[in-house]
Amino acid sequence: MKRILGIWKILLAPMCAFMLFSASCENTPPPGNPDAGLYHNYQEVTAELAALQSQFPAIAKVMDLGNSVQGRKIQAIKISDNVGTEEEEPEILFVGGHHAREWIAVDVPLLLAKHLLQNYNTNIAIKKMVDDGEIWIVPMLNPDGHQYSVTNDRLWRKNRRNNNDGTFGVDLNRNYSYHWGGPGSSGSTFSETYRGPVAFSEPETGAIKTLAAAHEFKAMLSYHNFSQLVLFPWGHTNSNSPDHALMLNMARKMADEIRGVHNKNYTPQQSSDLYLASGDATDWLYGETSVPSFTIELRPRSSSPGFILPESEIQSTFEENLPAALYLIEWTQAAAGMTVTM
Ligand SMILES: [Zn+2]
User: Is residue 32 in some structural domain?
Assistant: First the structure.
């Protein structure tokens, strides 16, 4: 085995020397192949969203939220009846792919969009959800990082910001403003949890900020992997949030829904029980607007295989997460109904 690795090093040496100019030869595997297998890479996500919009023009609209550091599009798909109109309907936000290497966290929200659209005409419950709400899905928030993870370094986490000190990348899920700079984030550009020079320094997190300012989301779900957890604020402190009981209850419900499909256990818990993290998306949206906000850490359960979930599990991971997502959509619509009648 060692001998084989040795040969790889020799073969890679000239390639690495060449790659120094693009500063991208830092890790295995050898760079080059832009194919993510059954997982969707940036180009495929973009093409898939465009195809969904043209297939379902009445209920699907792709929106450009801005450009990434390297100029890739950050896209959302809005799913609703009268999709071109901003209606007074409860809105919900699903976000995937803050972290580059978490490929399943892109495919799950993408498959969710597809499922809602393809079943609209035949499934009464889905039709009602789509008609009565405005469902926003941003499947790939970090396209530069994802692409780099596909072509250069499978375990890349951050975006591809040039920090101008020989390092690259800001951890997008430490770059939101609520308690930005607190525990569980780093001020060092070398760190995997580098929070950026200021809150919302990155166009990727800025896109979510702008989207949230223009809409009244009633809930958010952000996908990551791995560990099989349903997390809710706070992340920046071990204290309970004012809505701890409500969010714990909702997280338990989602975990139950997930378990009911393929008998996989996802543990519902406060985010900080995993580890402290400041400046994440859910603390920010909940902290700013008090709406229930969740992070689901998808499969697998443990560090082997960790981030690199076999592509044979894409479909089953989506299937088990579908009822949890539908539950959250229905919750936003029921909660809105209650507000009206009170
Ligand atoms: Zn993550």
Answer: no
